[in-house]
Amino acid sequence: MEEKTLLKLLIIVIIILMASVIGNVLLYMGITEANTNTFTSLKNTSETAEVPDSISYMDYSGAYFEGADLSGINGYKAILTGADLRSADLHGAKLTLADLSGADLREADLIGAKLDYAILRGTDLRGADLSFADLRGADLTDADLTNALIEGTDIRWIKGEYKR
């Protein structure tokens, strides 16, 4: 009888620990109901919404951020493919390993942004200010950097052919 009771207690403890671990992982990744609602409302261009401080690991493909203040945002491995970031304020943003393929970043403020090893394939960066940005190892295949400011930008190890 004692063995069955101990086994039941052990199973209950394991279930509680697993629920705690799963909750902490979801909290760490920012996958909460508030962030999901924010994402949904950002897809609707007729509404404005608060953007969380961190969009790391989140998928904002095709999101509308034209003119948005995203300065200093943490977007490690964020997915922003096809996002509209025209004239967005992204100075000091941390977008290491982010996927911005096909994103529209015309006239965006990317001063001091960390875009190291980011995927910028086909990204429109015409007129963007990339002064002192970190683009080390970024994939700029087919990106358009016409009239972009790149003073002090770290472009070591970039990949691909881009338009300048």
UniProtKB/TrEMBL annotation:
Matching InterPro entries = 5peptide_repeat, Pentapeptide-BTB/POZ_domain
Q: Which Gene3D superfamilies match?
A: E3 ubiquitin-protein ligase SopA (2.160.20.80)
TM region positions: 7-31
Among Pfam families, the record links this protein to: Pentapeptide (PF00805)
Q: Which UniProt keywords apply?
A: Membrane, Transmembrane, Transmembrane helix
Annotated PANTHER family:
BTB_POZ DOMAIN-CONTAINING PROTEIN KCTD9
- This chain belongs to the protein called Pentapeptide repeat-containing protein
